[in-house]
Design brief:
The complex is a heterodimer of chains A (about 80) and B (about 450).
Chain A lengths: L4 H37 L5 H30 L1
Chain B lengths: L1 H34 L9 H10 L2 H6 L15 H4 L1 H18 L5 H14 L12 H10 L3 H13 L3 H5 L4 H6 L2 H16 L7 H8 L6 H11 L4 H13 L1 H12 L2 H4 L11 H18 L4 H16 L3 H24 L4 H4 L2 H29 L20 H13 L6 H26 L1
Classes of the chains: A mainly alpha (about 80), B mainly alpha (about 450).
Chain lengths: ~80, ~450
Protein backbone atom coordinates (compact mmCIF):
# COMPACT_ATOMS: atom_id res chain seq x y z
CA UNK A 1 0.00 0.00 0.00
CA UNK A 2 1.71 3.18 -1.13
CA UNK A 3 -0.50 5.81 0.50
CA UNK A 4 -0.82 5.78 4.27
CA UNK A 5 -4.57 5.58 4.81
CA UNK A 6 -4.35 6.87 8.38
CA UNK A 7 -2.66 10.05 7.24
CA UNK A 8 -5.36 10.42 4.58
CA UNK A 9 -8.00 9.87 7.24
CA UNK A 10 -6.48 12.54 9.46
CA UNK A 11 -6.51 14.96 6.53
CA UNK A 12 -10.18 14.16 5.97
CA UNK A 13 -10.83 14.82 9.64
CA UNK A 14 -9.08 18.18 9.57
CA UNK A 15 -10.89 19.34 6.49
CA UNK A 16 -14.22 17.89 7.55
CA UNK A 17 -14.33 19.29 11.08
CA UNK A 18 -12.99 22.59 9.81
CA UNK A 19 -15.69 22.86 7.18
CA UNK A 20 -18.48 21.82 9.55
CA UNK A 21 -17.41 24.45 12.09
CA UNK A 22 -16.90 27.06 9.40
CA UNK A 23 -20.39 26.37 8.11
CA UNK A 24 -22.04 26.45 11.51
CA UNK A 25 -20.11 29.49 12.77
CA UNK A 26 -21.10 31.39 9.65
CA UNK A 27 -24.62 30.22 10.24
CA UNK A 28 -24.58 31.45 13.86
CA UNK A 29 -23.31 34.82 12.68
CA UNK A 30 -25.95 35.00 9.95
CA UNK A 31 -28.70 33.96 12.37
CA UNK A 32 -27.76 36.79 14.72
CA UNK A 33 -27.69 39.31 11.91
CA UNK A 34 -30.93 38.07 10.43
CA UNK A 35 -32.70 38.25 13.80
CA UNK A 36 -31.52 41.82 14.30
CA UNK A 37 -32.67 42.88 10.85
CA UNK A 38 -36.02 41.18 11.27
CA UNK A 39 -36.59 42.74 14.69
CA UNK A 40 -35.54 46.17 13.53
CA UNK A 41 -37.38 46.44 10.23
CA UNK A 42 -40.16 43.92 10.60
CA UNK A 43 -41.07 43.88 14.28
CA UNK A 44 -43.71 41.30 14.87
CA UNK A 45 -46.94 43.18 15.38
CA UNK A 46 -49.33 41.49 17.71
CA UNK A 47 -52.31 43.75 17.35
CA UNK A 48 -54.59 40.94 16.36
CA UNK A 49 -54.27 39.13 19.67
CA UNK A 50 -54.35 42.28 21.84
CA UNK A 51 -57.26 43.83 19.93
CA UNK A 52 -59.22 40.62 20.07
CA UNK A 53 -58.60 40.35 23.82
CA UNK A 54 -59.66 43.97 24.35
CA UNK A 55 -62.66 43.26 22.17
CA UNK A 56 -63.63 40.33 24.27
CA UNK A 57 -63.03 42.39 27.40
CA UNK A 58 -65.34 45.15 26.21
CA UNK A 59 -67.78 42.52 25.06
CA UNK A 60 -67.72 40.98 28.51
CA UNK A 61 -68.30 44.44 30.03
CA UNK A 62 -71.24 44.96 27.72
CA UNK A 63 -72.64 41.55 28.63
CA UNK A 64 -72.18 42.28 32.33
CA UNK A 65 -73.88 45.65 31.92
CA UNK A 66 -76.75 44.05 30.05
CA UNK A 67 -77.16 41.41 32.77
CA UNK A 68 -77.15 43.96 35.60
CA UNK A 69 -79.63 46.09 33.67
CA UNK A 70 -81.85 43.09 33.14
CA UNK A 71 -81.71 42.14 36.82
CA UNK A 72 -82.46 45.72 37.83
CA UNK A 73 -85.35 45.85 35.41
CA UNK A 74 -86.64 42.51 36.71
CA UNK A 75 -86.46 43.63 40.36
CA UNK A 76 -88.09 46.96 39.64
CA UNK A 77 -90.94 45.32 37.77
CA UNK B 1 -52.30 -25.10 -76.74
CA UNK B 2 -53.38 -21.91 -75.03
CA UNK B 3 -55.14 -23.97 -72.38
CA UNK B 4 -51.97 -25.90 -71.68
CA UNK B 5 -49.96 -22.72 -71.22
CA UNK B 6 -52.50 -21.39 -68.75
CA UNK B 7 -52.50 -24.71 -66.91
CA UNK B 8 -48.71 -24.71 -66.58
CA UNK B 9 -48.75 -21.09 -65.50
CA UNK B 10 -51.37 -21.78 -62.87
CA UNK B 11 -49.42 -24.78 -61.73
CA UNK B 12 -46.25 -22.70 -61.39
CA UNK B 13 -48.07 -19.99 -59.45
CA UNK B 14 -49.54 -22.59 -57.17
CA UNK B 15 -46.16 -24.16 -56.71
CA UNK B 16 -44.50 -20.86 -55.87
CA UNK B 17 -47.26 -20.07 -53.37
CA UNK B 18 -47.04 -23.43 -51.75
CA UNK B 19 -43.29 -23.19 -51.43
CA UNK B 20 -43.69 -19.73 -49.98
CA UNK B 21 -46.25 -21.01 -47.54
CA UNK B 22 -43.99 -23.90 -46.69
CA UNK B 23 -41.08 -21.61 -45.93
CA UNK B 24 -43.28 -19.37 -43.79
CA UNK B 25 -44.56 -22.37 -41.95
CA UNK B 26 -41.04 -23.57 -41.48
CA UNK B 27 -39.88 -20.32 -39.86
CA UNK B 28 -42.89 -20.12 -37.55
CA UNK B 29 -42.27 -23.70 -36.59
CA UNK B 30 -38.65 -22.89 -35.90
CA UNK B 31 -39.55 -19.88 -33.74
CA UNK B 32 -42.05 -21.92 -31.86
CA UNK B 33 -39.40 -24.49 -31.18
CA UNK B 34 -36.98 -21.96 -29.74
CA UNK B 35 -39.69 -20.27 -27.70
CA UNK B 36 -41.18 -23.40 -26.28
CA UNK B 37 -38.13 -24.83 -24.61
CA UNK B 38 -40.04 -25.05 -21.37
CA UNK B 39 -43.14 -26.63 -22.75
CA UNK B 40 -44.95 -28.96 -20.54
CA UNK B 41 -44.07 -32.54 -21.21
CA UNK B 42 -46.05 -35.41 -19.99
CA UNK B 43 -44.51 -36.89 -16.87
CA UNK B 44 -45.33 -39.84 -14.76
CA UNK B 45 -46.85 -38.98 -11.40
CA UNK B 46 -43.78 -40.08 -9.46
CA UNK B 47 -41.64 -37.77 -11.58
CA UNK B 48 -43.97 -34.89 -10.78
CA UNK B 49 -43.78 -35.56 -7.07
CA UNK B 50 -40.00 -35.81 -7.31
CA UNK B 51 -39.84 -32.50 -9.19
CA UNK B 52 -42.02 -30.82 -6.60
CA UNK B 53 -39.95 -32.13 -3.72
CA UNK B 54 -36.75 -30.88 -5.32
CA UNK B 55 -38.26 -27.37 -5.57
CA UNK B 56 -39.18 -27.04 -1.88
CA UNK B 57 -37.49 -24.67 0.52
CA UNK B 58 -36.40 -27.54 2.75
CA UNK B 59 -34.42 -29.02 -0.11
CA UNK B 60 -32.96 -25.61 -0.98
CA UNK B 61 -31.81 -25.06 2.60
CA UNK B 62 -30.39 -28.55 3.11
CA UNK B 63 -28.67 -29.12 -0.22
CA UNK B 64 -28.59 -25.86 -2.14
CA UNK B 65 -28.37 -25.72 -5.91
CA UNK B 66 -24.65 -25.41 -6.74
CA UNK B 67 -25.42 -23.16 -9.71
CA UNK B 68 -27.59 -20.70 -7.81
CA UNK B 69 -26.28 -17.14 -8.04
CA UNK B 70 -26.71 -14.28 -5.59
CA UNK B 71 -28.91 -11.27 -6.38
CA UNK B 72 -25.85 -9.63 -7.91
CA UNK B 73 -25.20 -12.62 -10.16
CA UNK B 74 -22.09 -13.64 -8.22
CA UNK B 75 -21.19 -17.08 -7.00
CA UNK B 76 -22.30 -17.84 -3.44
CA UNK B 77 -20.65 -20.20 -1.01
CA UNK B 78 -22.67 -23.18 0.18
CA UNK B 79 -22.69 -21.75 3.70
CA UNK B 80 -24.36 -18.54 2.53
CA UNK B 81 -26.97 -20.52 0.65
CA UNK B 82 -27.92 -22.83 3.49
CA UNK B 83 -27.08 -22.00 7.10
CA UNK B 84 -26.31 -18.38 6.32
CA UNK B 85 -29.89 -17.87 5.24
CA UNK B 86 -31.23 -19.58 8.32
CA UNK B 87 -29.06 -17.33 10.50
CA UNK B 88 -30.24 -14.22 8.66
CA UNK B 89 -33.86 -15.25 9.09
CA UNK B 90 -33.16 -15.56 12.82
CA UNK B 91 -31.54 -12.09 12.70
CA UNK B 92 -34.77 -10.83 11.14
CA UNK B 93 -36.68 -12.36 14.05
CA UNK B 94 -34.30 -10.66 16.48
CA UNK B 95 -35.06 -7.34 14.78
CA UNK B 96 -38.79 -8.01 15.17
CA UNK B 97 -38.22 -8.66 18.86
CA UNK B 98 -36.24 -5.44 19.32
CA UNK B 99 -38.87 -3.46 17.46
CA UNK B 100 -42.01 -4.92 19.04
CA UNK B 101 -40.98 -5.91 22.55
CA UNK B 102 -38.32 -3.27 23.17
CA UNK B 103 -39.81 -0.50 21.04
CA UNK B 104 -36.53 0.27 19.23
CA UNK B 105 -37.37 2.37 16.15
CA UNK B 106 -40.18 0.00 15.15
CA UNK B 107 -41.08 2.17 12.18
CA UNK B 108 -37.83 1.21 10.51
CA UNK B 109 -36.68 -1.98 12.12
CA UNK B 110 -39.90 -3.82 11.23
CA UNK B 111 -39.76 -3.11 7.48
CA UNK B 112 -35.99 -3.70 7.46
CA UNK B 113 -36.38 -6.97 9.38
CA UNK B 114 -39.17 -8.21 7.16
CA UNK B 115 -37.24 -7.19 4.07
CA UNK B 116 -34.33 -9.22 5.41
CA UNK B 117 -36.61 -12.20 5.98
CA UNK B 118 -37.92 -12.02 2.41
CA UNK B 119 -34.46 -11.47 0.93
CA UNK B 120 -33.18 -14.72 2.41
CA UNK B 121 -35.82 -16.95 0.86
CA UNK B 122 -34.15 -19.40 -1.50
CA UNK B 123 -35.37 -19.96 -5.10
CA UNK B 124 -37.91 -17.08 -5.08
CA UNK B 125 -35.22 -14.44 -5.71
CA UNK B 126 -37.24 -11.63 -4.13
CA UNK B 127 -34.14 -9.46 -3.70
CA UNK B 128 -32.93 -10.25 -7.21
CA UNK B 129 -33.31 -7.84 -10.11
CA UNK B 130 -36.82 -9.12 -10.91
CA UNK B 131 -38.07 -9.58 -7.35
CA UNK B 132 -40.08 -6.81 -5.73
CA UNK B 133 -37.42 -6.00 -3.17
CA UNK B 134 -34.84 -5.76 -5.92
CA UNK B 135 -37.15 -3.44 -7.84
CA UNK B 136 -37.62 -1.24 -4.78
CA UNK B 137 -33.88 -1.13 -4.25
CA UNK B 138 -33.24 -0.09 -7.83
CA UNK B 139 -36.13 2.35 -7.73
CA UNK B 140 -35.06 4.44 -4.81
CA UNK B 141 -32.01 3.29 -2.93
CA UNK B 142 -29.44 2.68 -5.63
CA UNK B 143 -30.02 6.24 -6.82
CA UNK B 144 -30.37 7.83 -3.32
CA UNK B 145 -33.95 8.91 -4.02
CA UNK B 146 -35.66 7.61 -0.87
CA UNK B 147 -33.26 9.20 1.66
CA UNK B 148 -33.87 12.54 -0.03
CA UNK B 149 -37.64 12.13 0.28
CA UNK B 150 -37.23 11.21 3.95
CA UNK B 151 -35.22 14.38 4.42
CA UNK B 152 -38.11 16.40 2.98
CA UNK B 153 -40.47 14.90 5.50
CA UNK B 154 -38.06 15.42 8.39
CA UNK B 155 -37.64 19.03 7.26
CA UNK B 156 -41.38 19.52 7.37
CA UNK B 157 -41.41 18.14 10.92
CA UNK B 158 -38.51 20.23 12.21
CA UNK B 159 -38.92 23.42 14.17
CA UNK B 160 -35.83 25.62 14.05
CA UNK B 161 -37.22 27.94 16.73
CA UNK B 162 -35.02 26.67 19.60
CA UNK B 163 -31.90 27.00 17.44
CA UNK B 164 -32.84 30.51 16.30
CA UNK B 165 -33.42 31.70 19.83
CA UNK B 166 -30.04 30.40 21.03
CA UNK B 167 -27.82 30.26 17.91
CA UNK B 168 -24.58 29.41 19.65
CA UNK B 169 -25.86 25.93 20.52
CA UNK B 170 -25.26 25.15 16.85
CA UNK B 171 -21.61 24.66 17.81
CA UNK B 172 -22.62 21.62 19.83
CA UNK B 173 -24.20 20.13 16.73
CA UNK B 174 -20.91 20.76 14.94
CA UNK B 175 -18.75 19.19 17.62
CA UNK B 176 -20.79 16.00 17.59
CA UNK B 177 -19.70 15.47 13.99
CA UNK B 178 -16.34 14.53 15.45
CA UNK B 179 -17.95 11.11 15.82
CA UNK B 180 -17.96 10.85 12.03
CA UNK B 181 -14.41 11.92 11.34
CA UNK B 182 -12.88 10.25 14.37
CA UNK B 183 -14.40 6.96 13.26
CA UNK B 184 -13.17 7.53 9.75
CA UNK B 185 -9.64 7.60 11.12
CA UNK B 186 -10.40 4.54 13.27
CA UNK B 187 -11.74 2.58 10.28
CA UNK B 188 -8.78 3.31 8.06
CA UNK B 189 -6.44 2.50 10.96
CA UNK B 190 -8.14 -0.90 11.21
CA UNK B 191 -7.64 -1.39 7.50
CA UNK B 192 -4.02 -0.27 7.67
CA UNK B 193 -2.83 -2.17 10.71
CA UNK B 194 -4.91 -5.34 10.79
CA UNK B 195 -4.79 -7.96 8.08
CA UNK B 196 -8.48 -8.93 8.47
CA UNK B 197 -10.25 -5.81 7.31
CA UNK B 198 -9.58 -4.07 4.07
CA UNK B 199 -11.65 -0.93 4.02
CA UNK B 200 -11.03 1.56 1.28
CA UNK B 201 -11.32 5.25 2.11
CA UNK B 202 -14.76 5.26 0.49
CA UNK B 203 -15.95 2.39 2.64
CA UNK B 204 -14.44 3.94 5.77
CA UNK B 205 -16.25 7.20 5.04
CA UNK B 206 -19.55 5.42 4.52
CA UNK B 207 -19.15 3.56 7.81
CA UNK B 208 -18.14 6.64 9.76
CA UNK B 209 -21.33 8.50 8.83
CA UNK B 210 -23.08 6.23 11.34
CA UNK B 211 -21.54 8.57 13.93
CA UNK B 212 -23.80 11.33 12.63
CA UNK B 213 -26.69 9.27 14.00
CA UNK B 214 -28.71 10.17 10.97
CA UNK B 215 -30.27 7.20 9.17
CA UNK B 216 -31.15 8.83 5.84
CA UNK B 217 -27.74 10.52 5.57
CA UNK B 218 -25.99 7.20 6.27
CA UNK B 219 -28.00 5.50 3.55
CA UNK B 220 -27.42 8.38 1.16
CA UNK B 221 -23.65 8.21 1.60
CA UNK B 222 -23.42 4.42 1.75
CA UNK B 223 -25.34 3.91 -1.47
CA UNK B 224 -23.06 6.44 -3.17
CA UNK B 225 -19.68 5.41 -1.79
CA UNK B 226 -20.01 1.78 -0.71
CA UNK B 227 -23.27 0.12 -1.84
CA UNK B 228 -21.87 -3.31 -0.91
CA UNK B 229 -21.90 -2.30 2.77
CA UNK B 230 -25.33 -0.64 2.68
CA UNK B 231 -27.21 -3.32 4.59
CA UNK B 232 -24.83 -3.44 7.52
CA UNK B 233 -24.48 0.35 7.67
CA UNK B 234 -28.22 0.96 7.59
CA UNK B 235 -28.94 -1.64 10.22
CA UNK B 236 -26.15 -0.36 12.46
CA UNK B 237 -27.24 3.22 12.00
CA UNK B 238 -30.89 2.65 12.81
CA UNK B 239 -30.21 0.26 15.67
CA UNK B 240 -27.87 2.73 17.32
CA UNK B 241 -30.35 5.55 16.78
CA UNK B 242 -32.84 3.36 18.56
CA UNK B 243 -30.39 2.68 21.35
CA UNK B 244 -29.65 6.35 22.03
CA UNK B 245 -31.31 6.13 25.48
CA UNK B 246 -28.99 3.27 26.41
CA UNK B 247 -25.71 4.39 24.86
CA UNK B 248 -25.70 8.08 25.69
CA UNK B 249 -26.47 8.53 29.43
CA UNK B 250 -23.37 6.73 30.80
CA UNK B 251 -21.10 8.84 28.58
CA UNK B 252 -22.91 12.03 29.54
CA UNK B 253 -22.66 11.25 33.23
CA UNK B 254 -19.01 10.24 33.04
CA UNK B 255 -17.98 13.51 31.45
CA UNK B 256 -19.91 15.98 33.62
CA UNK B 257 -19.82 17.01 37.27
CA UNK B 258 -22.87 17.19 39.47
CA UNK B 259 -22.85 21.00 39.46
CA UNK B 260 -22.68 21.11 35.66
CA UNK B 261 -25.65 18.83 35.31
CA UNK B 262 -27.73 21.20 37.42
CA UNK B 263 -26.98 24.31 35.37
CA UNK B 264 -30.21 26.07 34.52
CA UNK B 265 -30.37 27.72 31.15
CA UNK B 266 -32.08 31.04 30.53
CA UNK B 267 -35.51 30.78 28.96
CA UNK B 268 -35.67 30.87 25.21
CA UNK B 269 -36.79 34.09 23.58
CA UNK B 270 -39.73 34.22 21.25
CA UNK B 271 -38.82 33.69 17.59
CA UNK B 272 -40.89 35.54 15.02
CA UNK B 273 -42.50 33.83 12.09
CA UNK B 274 -40.42 35.80 9.60
CA UNK B 275 -37.19 34.56 11.19
CA UNK B 276 -38.35 30.99 10.86
CA UNK B 277 -39.31 31.64 7.25
CA UNK B 278 -35.99 33.24 6.30
CA UNK B 279 -33.88 30.62 8.07
CA UNK B 280 -34.27 27.68 5.63
CA UNK B 281 -33.51 29.92 2.66
CA UNK B 282 -30.49 31.31 4.48
CA UNK B 283 -29.06 27.86 5.21
CA UNK B 284 -29.65 26.77 1.65
CA UNK B 285 -27.95 29.85 0.19
CA UNK B 286 -25.00 29.27 2.49
CA UNK B 287 -24.81 25.63 1.37
CA UNK B 288 -25.00 26.70 -2.28
CA UNK B 289 -22.10 29.08 -1.78
CA UNK B 290 -19.91 26.89 0.41
CA UNK B 291 -20.74 23.28 -0.30
CA UNK B 292 -22.95 22.46 -3.30
CA UNK B 293 -22.29 18.75 -2.70
CA UNK B 294 -24.46 18.95 0.39
CA UNK B 295 -27.36 20.66 -1.37
CA UNK B 296 -29.32 17.53 -2.32
CA UNK B 297 -29.77 16.77 1.39
CA UNK B 298 -29.96 20.33 2.69
CA UNK B 299 -32.12 21.44 -0.22
CA UNK B 300 -34.71 18.73 0.38
CA UNK B 301 -34.62 19.35 4.11
CA UNK B 302 -35.08 23.08 3.75
CA UNK B 303 -37.78 22.63 1.12
CA UNK B 304 -39.83 20.66 3.62
CA UNK B 305 -39.15 23.18 6.35
CA UNK B 306 -39.92 26.17 4.14
CA UNK B 307 -43.29 24.76 3.15
CA UNK B 308 -44.11 24.17 6.80
CA UNK B 309 -43.07 27.63 7.94
CA UNK B 310 -44.73 29.38 5.00
CA UNK B 311 -48.03 28.49 6.59
CA UNK B 312 -49.91 28.74 3.30
CA UNK B 313 -49.50 25.18 2.04
CA UNK B 314 -50.58 23.19 5.06
CA UNK B 315 -51.88 20.45 2.79
CA UNK B 316 -48.46 19.86 1.23
CA UNK B 317 -46.55 20.09 4.47
CA UNK B 318 -49.06 17.78 6.09
CA UNK B 319 -48.57 15.24 3.29
CA UNK B 320 -44.79 15.38 3.68
CA UNK B 321 -44.97 14.95 7.44
CA UNK B 322 -47.35 12.03 7.26
CA UNK B 323 -48.38 10.29 4.05
CA UNK B 324 -45.21 10.82 2.04
CA UNK B 325 -42.72 9.98 4.76
CA UNK B 326 -44.76 6.93 5.77
CA UNK B 327 -44.90 5.54 2.24
CA UNK B 328 -41.22 6.19 1.67
CA UNK B 329 -40.36 4.62 5.03
CA UNK B 330 -42.04 1.38 3.95
CA UNK B 331 -40.15 1.32 0.67
CA UNK B 332 -36.88 2.39 2.23
CA UNK B 333 -37.10 -0.19 5.00
CA UNK B 334 -37.86 -3.05 2.63
CA UNK B 335 -35.18 -1.96 0.18
CA UNK B 336 -32.60 -1.79 2.95
CA UNK B 337 -33.82 -5.18 4.14
CA UNK B 338 -33.05 -6.61 0.72
CA UNK B 339 -29.39 -5.95 1.52
CA UNK B 340 -29.60 -8.30 4.50
CA UNK B 341 -29.11 -11.25 2.16
CA UNK B 342 -26.76 -13.74 3.80
CA UNK B 343 -24.03 -13.45 1.19
CA UNK B 344 -23.72 -9.72 1.81
CA UNK B 345 -24.38 -9.46 5.54
CA UNK B 346 -22.62 -12.50 6.99
CA UNK B 347 -19.11 -11.28 6.36
CA UNK B 348 -16.38 -10.16 8.78
CA UNK B 349 -16.84 -6.54 7.68
CA UNK B 350 -20.30 -6.44 9.27
CA UNK B 351 -18.90 -7.06 12.73
CA UNK B 352 -16.36 -4.30 12.20
CA UNK B 353 -19.13 -1.95 11.04
CA UNK B 354 -21.28 -2.70 14.08
CA UNK B 355 -18.30 -2.13 16.37
CA UNK B 356 -17.13 1.03 14.60
CA UNK B 357 -20.72 2.31 14.61
CA UNK B 358 -21.02 2.24 18.37
CA UNK B 359 -17.57 3.86 18.69
CA UNK B 360 -18.65 6.57 16.24
CA UNK B 361 -21.81 7.19 18.16
CA UNK B 362 -20.09 7.40 21.52
CA UNK B 363 -17.36 9.67 20.16
CA UNK B 364 -19.99 12.05 18.77
CA UNK B 365 -21.83 12.13 22.09
CA UNK B 366 -18.63 12.76 24.02
CA UNK B 367 -17.45 15.48 21.64
CA UNK B 368 -20.76 17.33 22.02
CA UNK B 369 -20.59 17.23 25.82
CA UNK B 370 -16.94 18.36 25.85
CA UNK B 371 -17.74 21.19 23.45
CA UNK B 372 -20.43 22.43 25.84
CA UNK B 373 -17.85 22.41 28.66
CA UNK B 374 -15.44 24.39 26.50
CA UNK B 375 -18.18 26.93 25.73
CA UNK B 376 -18.72 27.37 29.46
CA UNK B 377 -15.11 28.54 29.81
CA UNK B 378 -16.07 31.66 27.91
CA UNK B 379 -18.11 34.46 29.45
CA UNK B 380 -21.79 34.61 28.62
CA UNK B 381 -24.81 32.49 29.37
CA UNK B 382 -23.81 29.10 30.69
CA UNK B 383 -24.71 25.97 28.77
CA UNK B 384 -25.73 22.78 30.50
CA UNK B 385 -23.29 20.19 29.09
CA UNK B 386 -26.05 17.60 29.06
CA UNK B 387 -27.51 19.22 25.94
CA UNK B 388 -24.17 18.69 24.17
CA UNK B 389 -25.02 15.04 23.61
CA UNK B 390 -28.04 16.12 21.58
CA UNK B 391 -25.63 17.34 18.91
CA UNK B 392 -25.81 13.90 17.32
CA UNK B 393 -28.74 14.28 15.02
CA UNK B 394 -31.10 11.54 16.18
CA UNK B 395 -34.10 13.90 16.32
CA UNK B 396 -35.82 14.12 18.75
CA UNK B 397 -34.59 11.10 20.69
CA UNK B 398 -31.22 12.62 21.67
CA UNK B 399 -32.91 15.79 22.96
CA UNK B 400 -35.30 13.72 25.04
CA UNK B 401 -32.37 11.85 26.55
CA UNK B 402 -30.72 15.17 27.53
CA UNK B 403 -33.97 16.23 29.14
CA UNK B 404 -34.38 12.96 30.99
CA UNK B 405 -30.84 12.90 32.37
CA UNK B 406 -31.18 16.55 33.41
CA UNK B 407 -34.40 15.79 35.27
CA UNK B 408 -32.70 12.98 37.16
CA UNK B 409 -30.56 15.58 38.91
CA UNK B 410 -33.02 18.45 39.14
CA UNK B 411 -36.73 17.81 38.72
CA UNK B 412 -37.40 21.38 37.73
CA UNK B 413 -34.72 21.60 35.04
CA UNK B 414 -36.45 21.31 31.66
CA UNK B 415 -33.78 20.95 29.02
CA UNK B 416 -35.90 19.62 26.16
CA UNK B 417 -36.29 22.81 24.17
CA UNK B 418 -32.69 23.84 24.85
CA UNK B 419 -31.52 20.47 23.56
CA UNK B 420 -33.58 20.78 20.39
CA UNK B 421 -31.22 23.54 19.22
CA UNK B 422 -28.08 21.39 19.02
CA UNK B 423 -30.25 18.51 17.84
CA UNK B 424 -31.46 20.23 14.67
CA UNK B 425 -28.02 21.82 14.19
CA UNK B 426 -26.68 18.26 14.27
CA UNK B 427 -28.88 17.39 11.30
CA UNK B 428 -27.42 20.31 9.36
CA UNK B 429 -23.94 19.41 10.60
CA UNK B 430 -24.11 15.80 9.46
CA UNK B 431 -25.53 16.86 6.09
CA UNK B 432 -22.54 19.21 5.75
CA UNK B 433 -20.15 16.43 6.78
CA UNK B 434 -21.76 14.14 4.21
CA UNK B 435 -21.35 16.83 1.56
CA UNK B 436 -17.67 17.18 2.39
CA UNK B 437 -17.08 13.43 2.14
CA UNK B 438 -18.83 13.41 -1.23
CA UNK B 439 -16.84 16.39 -2.45
CA UNK B 440 -13.59 14.64 -1.50
CA UNK B 441 -14.41 11.67 -3.71
CA UNK B 442 -15.89 13.48 -6.67
Amino acid sequence: MDTNLVVEGLKFMGLGMGAVFLFLTTLIFLMGMMSKIVHKFFPEVQPSTSSSSSNTQSNQKKVAAAITAAIKFHRES
Amino acid sequence: MKKNVIKTFMFLVLLSFSSLYASVAETTLHEAATKKVETYQAQSFSEMVGGFLSSTGIKAFLSPDPNELSSHGDKMSDFHKSWGRVIMILVAFALFYLAIAKGFEPLLLLPIGFGGLLANIPIAGIAGPDGFLGIMYEMGLANQFFPILIFMGVGAMTDFGPLLSNPKTALLGGAAQFGIFGTLVGAVALAQYTPIFEFTLQQASAISIIGGADGPTSIFIASKLAPELLGAIAVASYSYMAMVPIIQPPIMKALTTDAERKIKMSTLRHVSRLEKLVFPIMVLVLAILVLPDATPLIGAFMFGNFLKESGVVDRLSDTMQNALINIVTIFLGLAVGSKLAADQFLVADTLAILALGVVAFSAGTAAGVIMAKIMNLFPGNKVNPLIGSAGVSAVPMAARVSNKVGMEYDRSNMLLMHAMGPNVAGVIGSAVAAGILLSLFS
